[in-house]
């Protein structure tokens, strides 16, 4: 499913809304999440999952073609942890029984 | 870097502000978007949101794990996990903001 199909599915369920409003709704949601992450904030959506940002330290990497050492600067990467309810749904309703240290996401 | 935590209500507030529906309806639509994404993933569909990222279910085989506390070997049964691959646009956006 791509974004336009998601928009279509939501639009089909909400015939009273203009298509362009549904587009804005969906875009706003992802834009809010991206904005939060770029500020270093977390986004917790219970039952679905949590988005956070992890820092990766600067390191010396190597150009695999030339073998030359290159400095890789520190960077931040977005990370998603699946929520408990969604994880169970993916597994046909069974609880995934390891990895239970999560905060009831 | 310990920032705030956003929740559904922040997302609904954004929708309310941007689109001008009622707060109630904004909240329902946020829920509906999450429900459709979860539903598609539960059906085994990959969900690709351009300029944000891709959510994909992956099947993991059975393997032997270890209880880190007791050292005891325990089998980890085959299971399906969700992987999120952020788009380049999202990664760039997060790093552009962090250059301080």
From TrEMBL, chain A:
<keyword id="KW-0810">Translation regulation</keyword>
<dbReference type="GO" id="GO:0006310">
    <property type="term" value="P:DNA recombination"/>
</dbReference>
<dbReference type="GO" id="GO:0006417">
    <property type="term" value="P:regulation of translation"/>
</dbReference>
<dbReference type="GO" id="GO:0005694">
    <property type="term" value="C:chromosome"/>
</dbReference>
<protein>
    <recommendedName>
        <fullName>Integration host factor subunit beta</fullName>
    </recommendedName>
</protein>
<dbReference type="InterPro" id="IPR010992">
    <property type="entry name" value="IHF-like_DNA-bd_dom_sf"/>
</dbReference>
<dbReference type="InterPro" id="IPR005685">
    <property type="entry name" value="IHF_beta"/>
</dbReference>
<keyword id="KW-0804">Transcription</keyword>
<dbReference type="InterPro" id="IPR020816">
    <property type="entry name" value="Histone-like_DNA-bd_CS"/>
</dbReference>
<comment type="subunit">
    <text>Heterodimer of an alpha and a beta chain.</text>
</comment>
<dbReference type="GO" id="GO:0030527">
    <property type="term" value="F:structural constituent of chromatin"/>
</dbReference>
<dbReference type="Pfam" id="PF00216">
    <property type="entry name" value="Bac_DNA_binding"/>
</dbReference>
<dbReference type="GO" id="GO:0005829">
    <property type="term" value="C:cytosol"/>
</dbReference>
<dbReference type="InterPro" id="IPR000119">
    <property type="entry name" value="Hist_DNA-bd"/>
</dbReference>
<dbReference type="GO" id="GO:0006355">
    <property type="term" value="P:regulation of DNA-templated transcription"/>
</dbReference>
<keyword id="KW-0238">DNA-binding</keyword>
<feature type="region of interest" description="Disordered">
    <location>
        <begin position="83"/>
        <end position="105"/>
    </location>
</feature>
<keyword id="KW-0805">Transcription regulation</keyword>
<comment type="similarity">
    <text>Belongs to the bacterial histone-like protein family.</text>
</comment>
<comment type="function">
    <text>This protein is one of the two subunits of integration host factor, a specific DNA-binding protein that functions in genetic recombination as well as in transcriptional and translational control.</text>
</comment>
<keyword id="KW-0233">DNA recombination</keyword>
<dbReference type="GO" id="GO:0003677">
    <property type="term" value="F:DNA binding"/>
</dbReference>
UniProtKB/TrEMBL annotation, chain B:
<dbReference type="InterPro" id="IPR010992">
    <property type="entry name" value="IHF-like_DNA-bd_dom_sf"/>
</dbReference>
<dbReference type="GO" id="GO:0006310">
    <property type="term" value="P:DNA recombination"/>
</dbReference>
<dbReference type="GO" id="GO:0006417">
    <property type="term" value="P:regulation of translation"/>
</dbReference>
<dbReference type="InterPro" id="IPR020816">
    <property type="entry name" value="Histone-like_DNA-bd_CS"/>
</dbReference>
<comment type="similarity">
    <text>Belongs to the bacterial histone-like protein family.</text>
</comment>
<keyword id="KW-0238">DNA-binding</keyword>
<dbReference type="Pfam" id="PF00216">
    <property type="entry name" value="Bac_DNA_binding"/>
</dbReference>
<protein>
    <recommendedName>
        <fullName>Integration host factor subunit alpha</fullName>
    </recommendedName>
</protein>
<dbReference type="GO" id="GO:0005829">
    <property type="term" value="C:cytosol"/>
</dbReference>
<keyword id="KW-0810">Translation regulation</keyword>
<keyword id="KW-0233">DNA recombination</keyword>
<dbReference type="InterPro" id="IPR005684">
    <property type="entry name" value="IHF_alpha"/>
</dbReference>
<keyword id="KW-0804">Transcription</keyword>
<dbReference type="GO" id="GO:0003677">
    <property type="term" value="F:DNA binding"/>
</dbReference>
<comment type="function">
    <text>This protein is one of the two subunits of integration host factor, a specific DNA-binding protein that functions in genetic recombination as well as in transcriptional and translational control.</text>
</comment>
<dbReference type="GO" id="GO:0009893">
    <property type="term" value="P:positive regulation of metabolic process"/>
</dbReference>
<dbReference type="InterPro" id="IPR000119">
    <property type="entry name" value="Hist_DNA-bd"/>
</dbReference>
<comment type="subunit">
    <text>Heterodimer of an alpha and a beta chain.</text>
</comment>
<keyword id="KW-0805">Transcription regulation</keyword>
<dbReference type="GO" id="GO:0006355">
    <property type="term" value="P:regulation of DNA-templated transcription"/>
</dbReference>
<dbReference type="GO" id="GO:0030527">
    <property type="term" value="F:structural constituent of chromatin"/>
</dbReference>
């Amino acid at each position: 499913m791509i974004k336009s199909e998601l928009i279509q599915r939501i639009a089909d369920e909400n015939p009273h809304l203009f298509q362009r409003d549904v587009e804005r709704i969906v875009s706003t949601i992802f834009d809010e999440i991206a904005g939060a992450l770029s500020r270093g904030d977390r986004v917790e959506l219970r039952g679905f999952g949590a988005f956070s940002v992890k820092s990766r330290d600067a390191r010396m990497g190597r150009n695999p073609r030339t073998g030359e050492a290159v400095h890789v600067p520190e960077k931040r990467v977005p990370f998603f942890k699946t929520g408990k309810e969604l994880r169970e749904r993916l597994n046909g309703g069974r609880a995934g029984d390891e990895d239970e240290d999560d905060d009831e996401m | 870097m310990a920032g705030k935590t956003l929740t559904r209500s922040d997302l609904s507030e954004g929708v309310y502000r941007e689109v001008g529906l009622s707060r109630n309806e904004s909240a329902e639509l946020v829920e509906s978007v999450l429900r459709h994404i979860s539903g598609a993933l539960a059906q085994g569909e990959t969900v690709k949101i351009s300029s944000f990222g891709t959510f994909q279910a992956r099947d993991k085989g059975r393997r032997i794990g270890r209880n880190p506390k007791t050292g005891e070997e325990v089998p980890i049964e085959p299971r399906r996990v969700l992987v999120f691959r952020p788009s380049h646009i999202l990664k760039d956006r997060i790093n552009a903001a962090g250059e301080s």
